[in-house]
Amino acid sequence: MSNKPEAQDWSLASREKRSSPLGSTLFVGLRAADAVLQYNLLRQGWAHEAVTALGGTAISTVGAGQLGLTPYGTILTSLAIGSSLKHIIWKIVIGEQEMKPAAAVAIAIFNTLLNSANTLLSAWAWCSAAPTNLPSAVSVTDVLLSSPWLLTGCALFGAGIATELGAEVDRMRFKAKPENKGKPYGGGLWSLATNINYGGYTLWRAGYAIAAAGPAWGLAVGAFFFYDFTSRAIPELDRYCSDKVSTTKKMTRVSPKNAHADPPCSMGMIGLR
Questions:
Q1: pLDDT tens digits for 125-149?
Q2: What's the Cα-to-Cα distance from 241 to each of 90, 166, 194, 202, 221, rounded to whole Å?
């Protein structure tokens, strides 16, 4: 018998399917507040002031364009809003798991800290992905096309959001059918990877970071989440799924054809996502 300790799940997320009005309200409210914070860090010049106070050279994100921002500032604000909307849609429309108040606050704060790091780095001239030497009167499209890394980051962000949200909606529709109650889902995007939602999340997080501060920061963020998912979240989920499939097999007859085929078990948002 192995004495190797099992990895622990530090996600704080409950797998119990029950209503949680307080936790859900906290989560939705805090994620919405994050989008407002990121906008004001750029619009009010707070990010500029923070970079200057730390001795760095800051770029201006205040302008006469949309939302009172420069085109680059508008792009960064849009990414922040997109990240918040993704989580809010998940909680209101898709997520069935209980959201305890402590988990709601912890997950929201984690995302706000990471988004704030993106915003502050985007205002630091040394690493910002903002294009330079452009006329002042340019459009968002002009800015995107003038910076390969900014365009790459936005493309990865869009692809990641679409993958994660699309996979979760697909799974929700499968689970909504009475005949599929209790069954793990392995169709659609989930047929490409058992943890396709984690892949989508990692992709859009890395893309957001690249759009803010270039490839080095994007690689660091992507590597962090890849390591976290492979060392903590996925092993914990595998144990949960193994127990679930084992219990299901004991309760139902399994045909010889599928006797050794354990279908993938997919879940919604777990951990500090």
A1: 999 999 887 776 688 999 999 999 9
A2: 21, 22, 11, 22, 27
> In the numeric block, which tokens belong to residue 94?
């898709």
The pLDDT > 90 percentage for the chain reads 58
* Region of poorest pLDDT, from 124-128, 131-135, 236-240, 260-264: 260-264
Q: How many whole angstroms separate alpha carbon 259 and alpha carbon 236?
A: 24
- Helix 196-228, helix 71-89: angle, nearest 10: 110
Burial of 1 per CB tally in 10 Å (0-12, 13-18, 19+): exposed
Chain length of the chain: 273
| pLDDT above 80 (res 267) | no
Contact 192, 166 (CB under 8 A): no
Lookup: tokens for 248:
């299901």
